[in-house]
Amino acid sequence: MSDIKSQLGLENVQTVYRNSDVDLLIDHAVKNEGAKISSTGALMIDTGIFTGRSPKDKFFVNQDPSNKYIAWGDINRAVTRDVYDDLLKTAKKQLSNKDLFVTYVYCGASIDSRRSARFITEIAWQANFIQNMFIMPEESELNEFTPQFTVYNACKTIDKSYVSHDLHSEVFVVFNVEENIAIIGGTWYAGEMKKGLFSMMNYWLPLEKKLPMHCSANIGKDGDTALFFGLSGTGKTTLSTDPQRALIGDDEHGWDDSGVFNFEGGCYAKVINLSAEHEP
Q1: In the 8-state DSSP scheme, what is residue 84?
Q2: C-beta of residue 108 within 8 angstroms of C-beta of residue 254
């Protein structure tokens, strides 16, 4: 654990819960974070004012060489290195002097294309979310696990200087491609972590001549793969769950020389305000 603490660049880290048992995370979330257990046994949490991502608060550090490969615009906004450095200090200050949940996972089911990632948070239910969303390494892999990307989720802090930083709001989701780091502040919505790593997969894979895709996918008995493309909420998840075909995944996939592979360890569908009338 001392090695983990030194790698994080944080001060006076207390207990580090690394890839903790799910029951421990759930128990901690219920006792300390306001989580509840549903009638079906699922963990429920209120994520505050954000029940979805905050796309206007997503930024990439404008630096070489990644700035040559990023499609700058309303979705991918630029931020200076100085602003990033300030926000990284803010995030690390928030995560110092306390217990932390550190989760090591893989993104991508293809051995040839997957990336290893480390998520750091002070919130147990967010660690539980990450374990659900991504591919968990075996216990035997953890001692030799080398993360290729790190996410600091400091959701309990905000950017008080966002006006002088020339940002959209107190919320920040910032990527430093060259340092393989992302920092999150001001939003508790866990989907920022999931989609954040997906954004990086969409950056890395094309540079390797592989295709990242926002789609659902399933496969037939003869190995024929079907892809379902469409905007969020238009039915990709529903259409891909064909009882006659095996589900590959329902959100983000890659296509390499070995075939089509899921980025996630399972599937993800928001159920907030879900109704049979609006989404049959």
Answers
A1: H
A2: yes
> Distance between CA 121 and CA 45 in Å, rounded?
16
Report CA dihedral (77, 254, 201, 204) to the nearest 10 degrees.
-100
Q: What does the alpha-carbon distance between residue 229 and residue 234 come to, in Å, rounded to a whole number?
A: 9
Q: 103 near 118, Cβ under 8 Å?
A: yes
Residue 278, C-beta contacts closer than 8 angstroms, at least 6 positions apart: none
Q: Is the dihedral of CA 93, 94, 97, 102 positive or negative?
A: negative
What are the phi and psi torsion angles at 3 (to 5°)? -65, -40
pTM score, two decimals? Answer: 0.92
Percent of the chain with pLDDT over 90: 78
Whether 42 and 128 have beta carbons less than 8 Å apart is answered as: no
What's at 85, amino acid-wise? D
Among candidates 105, 153, 150, which has minimal Cα distance to 126? 153
Contact 242, 236 (CB under 8 A): no
CA distance 32 to 249: 33
DSSP 163: T
| Best CA proximity match to 155, nearest among 123, 185, 176 | 185
Q: Which amino acid is at 131?
A: Q
As beta bridge partners, residue 66 has none
Name the residue among 170, 200, 38 with its Cα closest to residue 108: 200
CA dist 53 and 61 (Å) reads 19
Q: Are 174 and 150 in contact (CB under 8 A)?
A: no
* 278 has pLDDT over 90: no
In this predicted model, what pLDDT tens digit does every residue of 240-275 receive, in sequence order? 989 999 999 999 999 999 999 999 997 776 677 778
Prior bond to 137 cis, omega within 30?
no
Angle at 76 between CA 73 and CA 56, to 5 degrees: 95
